[in-house]
Amino acid sequence: MLLFTFKATPAVWFSFALNALVLFIIFIYHIFYEKTFSPFLSAYIVFNYLFLFFAPVVQIGSFYNLKEAKFPQRFPYDENLTVYVNLLIIIFNLSFFIAYVFFKKRLKNIPIKYQGLKKKFYPLTIFGILMISLLIFAFTFPVVWDEIVKPSWVALNVSKMYALVVNKALLFLPFAGIIMSKYYIENSPKKTYNYYIVYIMMLLFFLILLWFKNPLTEKRNALGPLYITLIWLFRPNWLNTNLKMMLFLFFSMVIAFPLLAIVTHTSFSLLQLIQNPALLFVNSGNEGILHIFHSLHYDAFANIMATVDYVSHQGFVWGKQLLGVLTFYVPRAIWHGKPYGTGQMIGEYLIDEYKFIYANLSNPLVSEGYINFGMAGVVLMAVLLAYFVRLMLSWLNSRHILKKALAFYFSLHMIFLLRGDLLNGVAYFAGIVFSVLFLPFAIERLVLFFYYKSGINDEK
């Protein structure tokens, strides 16, 4: 329906129509032919439809003077470049889809040998996670409180390393506690003493997590995957089919998240909001549902155009940006020449060439591949994503409770990863993997060490 009302030249109209056709083929496969539950493909389809089809069609369709028309990040509209970018998106989608189907058929589930501790060790492990979570709560209290009470436009006085290690990793530890607590409660039919203790600890984890992760302290790219994963954990029948997942994500992206943007991007402090809650809706004219597709939230298509324009003037980077992604954990103080994220690099290019105002931009995987190796990079990025999604499918279908939850979380994080940039997408997911998977594993090992070291062994 959107295409029938889309006013554009035949070349631009046909390029978007072909883009939509490829997405429709993937949608038909996913809903009617894919037998397994794959929230990853649901997220992939919803992202591509909203960010790389619907949003640019709405934006271009609203242009009155095409010669002076500009996208939200001030990049000028260009008909030939628009067609070329649609071609890159089509190549990426076809490459991903073919690789996805191939890997699903040819690769067996990757075995996961470690299934966690026996049930009798769970309460001690959960207690250890709670103690560390409380220590993190005490250590970060001043920073989190400052984040809650300050207006959103005031930057926190913390280092980037703190923001990555603490905010994007350690503050997710209570999430692991909730997952393990729920698993223990569900598998303890008898209402034992430990059952009630673990239940109380799970409630404490919820309170700590709400303190760490709420609309006043975190942006939607972290809140959405986190709390939707919690919904899936406690009400799996709500999101257990591909159709349900598609509808839920579409509703969330079009209605729920724009409303949440009013809270997360408001310019008022907590005290002002408490005194006058009506202030929440002051920004609704700019952040509301009707205007959201004209905002920088949906700049993905235009940023691919800007990346292609950058390459036409500066040339390909031949893997330099990928090297920065693979070494995200190396502090810039040690490696002074470490590449910045592609979103920042293109943002600075837009500032220099097109008088944009700041460099904190997204950069989709399509352009991440293109800026490194051209069309070959677009195909390579799509195939690598398909392979990683196949790995996450094996996690989702495994018996490892933490990996199952992380896999579902990744299916939602995919929207952020696809929007980019790749450096932030990889770094943020690596942070939660460290906090939800490796920290609990380390605590479990300590539980076993002290248990056997103490000489208490039920099997004697």
List the helices and strands and how they pair.
Layout: H1 10-33, H2 39-61, H3 79-106, H4 122-149, H5 160-167, H6 173-186, H7 193-212, H8 220-234, H9 242-264, H10 270-275, H11 284-287, H12 300-314, H13 320-326, H14 342-354, H15 365-373, H16 375-396, H17 401-419, H18 422-453
Helix pairs in contact: 1-2, 1-3, 2-9, 2-17, 3-16, 4-6, 4-7, 4-18, 6-7, 6-18, 8-17, 12-14, 12-15, 13-18, 15-16, 16-17, 17-18
Order of helices and strands: HHHHHHHHHHHHHHHHHH
Radius of gyration based on Cα positions: 23 Å
Structural class by sheet pairing and helices? mainly alpha
Care to count the β-strands? 0
Average pLDDT, all residues: 84
Q: Can you summarize the main beta sheet?
A: none
Measured as a percent range, the helix fraction is 55-70%
Globular, elongated, flat, extended or rod-shaped: what is the shape? globular
Beta-strand fraction estimate: under 5%
Continuous helix count: 18
User: Ranges with pLDDT <50 over ≥5 residues?
Assistant: 281-288
**How far from one another are the termini?**
72 Å
Describe this structure in words.
The protein has a domain at 119-238 and 421-453. The protein contains 18 helices and no strands. It has helices at 10-33, 39-61, 79-106, 122-149, 160-167, 173-186, 193-212, 220-234, 242-264, 270-275, 284-287, 300-314, 320-326, 342-354, 365-373, 375-396, 401-419, 422-453. Helix 4 runs parallel beside helix 7 (193-212) and helix 13 (320-326) packs parallel to helix 18 (422-453). The longest helix has 32 residues, at 422-453. The relative contact order is 0.14.
